[in-house]
Automatic annotation (TrEMBL):
Name under which the protein is recorded: DUF6986 family protein
Transmembrane segments: none
Keyword Protease belongs to the record: no
UniProt entry tagged with the keyword Metal-binding: yes
Pfam families on file: DUF6986
UniProt keyword annotations, A-Z: Magnesium, Metal-binding
InterPro entries linked: DUF6986 (IPR054255), Pyrv/PenolPyrv_kinase-like_dom (IPR015813), Pyrv_kinase-like_dom_sf (IPR040442)
Co-factor(s): Mg(2+)
Amino acid sequence: MRLHEDDYHEIDASLAAHDAFLKARYPGERPGRQPVHTVYVPADRLDDFRDWGGVALATMDRHDFPWPDPAVRAKLAAEPIEDLRVDFEDGYGVRDDDQEDAAVRKAAAILADGPRPPFLGLRIKSLEPATRRRSLRTLDLFLDNYQDLFTITLPKVSGSDQVSAMVTLCEKLERSYGLSAGVLTFEIQVELPSAVLAADGTAAVARLITAAAGRCTGLHYGTYDYSAAAGVAAAYQSMEHPAADYAKAVMQAAAAQTGVRLSDGSTNVLPVGDTADVHAAWQLHRRLVRRSLERGFYQGWDLHPAQLPTRYAATYEFFRDGRDTAVTRLRRYLDRQDSGIADEPATARALAGYLLRGLDCGALTDAGFPREQLTALA
C-alpha cells in the first residue's frame, strides 16, 4: 500500500466543503406522515368544508360506487379531508380589498372554531406585480387572526427571485408576530414552464428549492396553468400529457432526497351529473390517482367532495396490492436470503418507506414489521 495518513487527510480536506453541501442540501426524505391529497376550497365557500365527507358518502350511495370498501367509508366519515388549503387565488378570484379582508377574517374564524383537518394551509395570490400587494396583505391579515401552524402555498412561481422574496417576507412576519424563526414554511406551485426550465437551459426548479433556504416543504404541479402556458390545447390538457410528465420528472429529480415533497395536480373532470357521467369521472380519477402513485407522486389535488371516494379507493388499493410482495422482499433482504430479486440497501429503504406510507394513509393495519423498525430502515 502506497497511501499514507497524510494522503487520507488531504482527500478528506478537499471534499469537506462538498460533504457539508450534501448534508445540507440532501438530508433525505422528510420523516412523518404525508397527506394523500390537498383539497382546495375557495375562501368564500369555506363554511361547507366540514360537509365534504357527508357529500362524498351520499354521492357513493346515490350512484352505486363501483369499488365498495368499508375502510373508505370509515375514512370519509372520520377524516374526509387530510390537507385543506383555503384558496385566495384562482378559486377565489379578484375582489376589492374590503371584500377580501372580510373573507380572510371569516376564514380564520372558521378554522379557529375547529375541528380542522390534520394538515392546513393558505393559498395566497402570486407575487407577480398585479397581485403582489394583495397577496402580502392577505397573508399578513390571516396571521393577525390565526397563528396556529399552517403552510403557505405560493402559486405561479416564475423564478427564484420570487422565492427569495417569499423567504424575506416570512422572516419579516416571524419577527413582527413574535414567531419562532423558520416556523413559516411554504409550498411552491409549479404552474409555468419557466419554473421547470430556465432561460439558460438549466433546471429552474432546483434553483427554486435552493432559494427557499430550507422553507420549501413541497412542489405542487399545476395541471392546467402549466399545460396552457406550454401551448397544449384545452381538450388535451391532462395530468398524463407528455408535457406534464416531463415537468414532473424534472421536479422529481430536483426534489429527490432534499426533504421537499411532491404533489401531482388535479383533474377538472368532476363526478357530477347523471350516474353514467359520475361513473366515467370516477373511473378517470381512480386511474389517474393510481398512475401518480406508481410514478412516486404520493399526493395530489382534489377539487370536489365526490373525488374523495376514488382518491382513497385508489390509494388503498395501491398499497394493499403491493403489501405482501414488499413484506417478503424486505424480510428476505433482512435475513440475507437468496431470492429472484437482488435488492440493495436503497431498495430496502424504499420498501420500508412504502409500507410506512401504507400505514400512515390507513390502507394497511399490518405492515409485517413494527412501525419502529420500518422507520429505522426508511
